[in-house]
Amino acid sequence: MEGWHGWDAYAPFYDWENSRTVGRRDIPFWRRHVAECGGPVLELGCGTGRVLLPVARTGVQVVGVDRSTAMLGHARRRLRRARGTDSARLVRGDIRSLPFATEGRFSLVMAPYGVLQSLVRDQDLRRTLLSVQGVLRPGGTFTMELVPDVPRWSEYDRRVSHLGRRRGGSARVSLVESVRQDRPRQLTVFEQEFTERRGRRRTTHRFSLAFRTLSMRQMTGRLRRAGFTIERLEGNYVGGAWTAEAETWLVVARGAL
């Protein structure tokens, strides 16, 4: 299973589920960080624009790249409806080989909410880190967020995780989820089953998502081997100290000079 499998199918439900999990808790961090680093900014795995839109409202030039056509379709619709986001641009591309070699370089590359954990093979992670080096300005900032609790999830079968209505819609949605751990490969696989109900009509969508979680030592080691300098580690969205038990892992690194 490749890390990008399942994301096109996930696109119609991504915002619905994330409003019930991370929500907007991380948005102030990214907006402050963008203000600190300046632009232009590149977001890896921008998805439906959950982070990209509020960053664009700061006025900085921001480019979002994603492999999923379906995810980008949702982001484009959101951008058309939004105000104050004229500085944003969306590009379909592979983060392992970023398509910006001839377009200048970015002051900040950001990888929010565990997007790099969708790279399930070490060679994919290495290619991505080297590609990020290639699009950063000398000494530019690369900031990533890791979701540390994923490998600690207990395995379970067909658990109802979320129930509710779509925002502004009539459909009722339920998520039935199963979790599998492949600890030798550091993989966590979520088998998702979303069901939409409109009156008597019922539609079910099934797909799987795989995530690979490295330890902080492993991830920072790979960053250093790719030429980055670790500037700081943070354990939450307000600058708290990092520990292995922190609720989120944030890595701020500097690219080569």
What does the model show?
The protein has 257 residues and is an alpha/beta fold. The protein folds into two domains: 7-148 and 215-254, 3-Layer(aba) Sandwich (Rossmann fold); 150-211. Helix content is 25%, strand content 34%. The chain contains six helices and eleven strands. It has helices at residues 7-18, 27-37, 52-56, 69-81, 122-135, 216-225; strands at residues 41-44, 62-66, 88-92, 106-111, 136-146, 156-165, 172-182, 187-198, 201-212, 229-234, 249-254. It has a seven-stranded mixed β-sheet, sandwiched between helices. A hairpin with a 4-residue loop joins strand 7 and strand 8. The radius of gyration is 18 Å and the shape is globular.
Q: Compute the separation of the termini in Å.
A: 37 Å
Helix % is: 25-40%
Q: What is the H level of CATH, i.e. the homologous superfamily of the largest domain?
A: Vaccinia Virus protein VP39
- The CATH architecture of the largest domain can be named as 3-Layer(aba) Sandwich
CA radius of gyration is 18 Å
The CATH class assignment of the largest domain is: Alpha Beta
User: Which structural class is indicated by helix and strand composition?
Assistant: alpha/beta
What sort of overall outline do the alpha carbons produce when their principal axes are compared? globular
- Number of helical elements: 6
Q: What's the total count of β strands?
A: 11
Q: Biggest sheet, strands in spatial order?
A: 3-2-1-4-5-11-10
Strand content: 25-35%
Order of helices and strands: HHEHEHEEHEEEEEHEE
Question: How is the main sheet built?
Answer: 7 strands, mixed
| Mean pLDDT, all residues | 92
The low-confidence parts are none
Count of domains: 2
Task: Write the CATH fold name of the largest domain.
Answer: Rossmann fold
